[in-house]
């Protein structure tokens, strides 16, 4: 399987551990990543609020680059997945298409609308498949209780993304079971992490993040994992602020999706960049890791 790799902004800078883990997992599973240095930012929802057509044009340009190479597009960010998928959908509107085409024509870019946008979670659970993934596990994760945190954009708007239920998804939990962890079900797993308002109302954003972590913890979670680097920033990098907002310690290690999978596939913590996390993951690792099984 070969895919156009769209790492997004965070994974190339502050969240480089996400890129490291993704590359390990893809190598282990035989997924070839085609690099496109000229990919641009998806707009992260902010451009969309100011100018919908411009946001569609930015993302259609990215999609057109993948289309020219004959590849579908792999993203590792829920927000990127949402923006790229919605651009694909909105481009079908003749009025939007006309304006976007006019903006891209001087750049010599044409798009026929053939590219599928695939988040890593969907690639792992559908294209690779949970059963095949389970066969590749060399270090089952010791039944540690992990709360998946889907966030907003991976599942919404459900009637346009045509994947899982925005209220009762199960793909991430299926994956956690396949790698030997015990999934924790809690209401906050499909709620917002607070990131969209972090720079406008930081106190409210911290309360939201703290509430979701508390919810996972109350249901027995010993760690959390998210498919979105922006959610990871809210839950890990800003967890100290969330603790102040809720008035008590949280001490919740938060993993990126491919880090959890990478550990089960035999990666070392160094290969997955786990030392880059703000909240220490040592206690969780002690419960998750065991010697790699020989085959």
**Quick one: overall form?**
globular
Provide the β-strand percentage band.
Answer: 5-15%
Total strands: 8
Major beta sheet, specifics? 4 strands, parallel
Discrete helix count: 13
**What structural class should be given to the helix and strand makeup?**
alpha/beta
Give a quick summary of the entry.
This protein has helices spanning 16-29, 46-50, 52-68, 78-90, 94-104, 120-136, 158-161, 171-178, 202-218, 229-237, 239-246, 257-264, 282-288, and strands spanning 2-6, 32-34, 73-75, 117-119, 145-148, 182-184, 223-226, 254-256. With 295 residues, it is α/β, with parallel strands linked by helices.
Note down, in words, how this protein is organized.
- This protein is α/β, with parallel strands linked by helices and 295 residues long.
- Helix content is 47%, strand content 9%.
- It is built from 13 helices and eight strands.
- The radius of gyration is 19 Å and the shape is globular.
Chain-wise SSE layout:
Layout: E1 2-6, H1 16-29, E2 32-34, H2 46-50, H3 52-68, E3 73-75, H4 78-90, H5 94-104, E4 117-119, H6 120-136, E5 145-148, H7 158-161, H8 171-178, E6 182-184, H9 202-218, E7 223-226, H10 229-237, H11 239-246, E8 254-256, H12 257-264, H13 282-288
Parallel strand pairs: 1-2, 1-3, 3-4, 5-6, 5-7, 7-8
Helix pairs in contact: 1-12, 3-4, 3-5, 6-8, 9-11
